[in-house]
Description:
Elements: H1 2-21, E1 43-50, E2 57-64, E3 70-76, E4 79-85, E5 94-103, E6 109-110, E7 120-121, H2 123-131, E8 134-141, E9 146-153, H3 158-165
Antiparallel strand pairs: 1-2, 2-3, 3-4, 4-7, 5-6, 5-8, 8-9
Helix pairs in contact: 2-3
Amino acid sequence: MKEFFFILAFTIFMAVVLAIIYPMPPSPAQPAVPAVPAVPVVDWYISMSTDAMTDAVTAYVAGQNEEGHKFTLLVHAGRVSVGFELGSPLASKRSGTGFMYRVDDHKAADFSDSSTSLPYIALDEAMVIANGKNLLVRYYVNGGDNHRDTAFTLDGGNAVLSKALGILE
């Protein structure tokens, strides 16, 4: 039994000595966090319906990012409207229905004073969205004093958006 404790003590002593002589190398520095968050993956889907009486086609396109937020387009009766919905748990903190969006390096579209949940946009603005790469949305929280941004990639949505806009032709 003495031999066991002697071997155990000697092993612990040697481990301590080796740790002092050969310390562990420092861990590599963490990579810097980018100032602009990476554009999240977005699931885009389309729902189309035809009115039984008028044969008018309506297309609803929605993209949901990893944060659970949705950007939507509704194409109906020759018009295109856009919308933005917060994913929960932030939905209760949103102030009003206004928002802004920007596609790539194009000028931002500002609906921050919008009283309607689905403001209309021109067809050429809708085409910018359909042909874009990235979409940035700014929304307002806590009484409109603060804003937050969220991003959507349009890579997976280009075909879906173009299909929806095709009913206007």
